[in-house]
Design goal:
Layout: E1 7-11, H1 17-21, H2 27-30, E2 46-53, E3 56-64, E4 78-86, H3 95-100, H4 103-110, E5 116-122, H5 126-135, E6 138-146, E7 149-157
Parallel strand pairs: 4-5
Antiparallel strand pairs: 1-2, 2-3, 3-4, 5-7, 6-7
């Protein structure tokens, strides 16, 4: 019987810096997201989150509570998820799915009052679309033109 490693979400702290600086992505993924080191600025409306496996950072994303969210939803209680990535050396182990499966309880605990997570995924990024759908994100039918053409706006209810 295979035992799965422990995966958890944690708000970013500078203790994660060394591992996050070592993140790499293949070129075909870099076009769709940013490396964690580029997104570590913390302020009241931007919340970097680290996916840990056995206490080691293996993934990263940012939750936004800024006016930028209004570009994706009319819900005043929503947050925007951006810059999702899994370190290339850790891909293919189910860590992205297992980390995102914890998104609802994490947001309920860390961001009281948030009842929806929205994100934009590039129409060409089929693996990401499938991952988000497995977690429970739904295509809202809204579209946004991003740096690399059309993006699908997806939503996850936190309730």
């Amino acid at each position: 019987m295979k035992v799965e490693t422990q995966v958890e979400l944690q708000l970013y702290s500078s203790a994660h810096d060394e591992q996050l600086k070592r993140f790499s992505l293949p070129q075909e993924q870099e076009q769709f997201t940013a490396l964690p080191i580029e997104m570590l600025e913390v302020h009241p409306e931007k919340h970097p989150v680290v996916i840990l496996s056995e206490q080691v950072p293996v993934g990263f994303f940012v939750l936004h509570a800024s006016d930028q969210v209004k570009e994706y939803t009319d819900n005043p209680h929503a947050m925007l998820l951006t810059s999702f990535s899994i370190n290339f050396t850790q891909q293919g182990k189910g860590l992205a799915r297992r980390g995102l499966e914890q998104l609802r309880p994490f947001v309920r605990h860390q961001f009281l009052g948030c009842d929806e997570i929205v994100l934009a995924v590039n129409q060409k990024n089929i693996p990401a679309q499938k991952l988000y759908e497995k977690i429970g994100f739904q295509d809202t039918g809204r579209r946004k033109i991003g740096p690399l053409r059309k993006q699908y706006i997806m939503s996850l209810s936190i309730e």
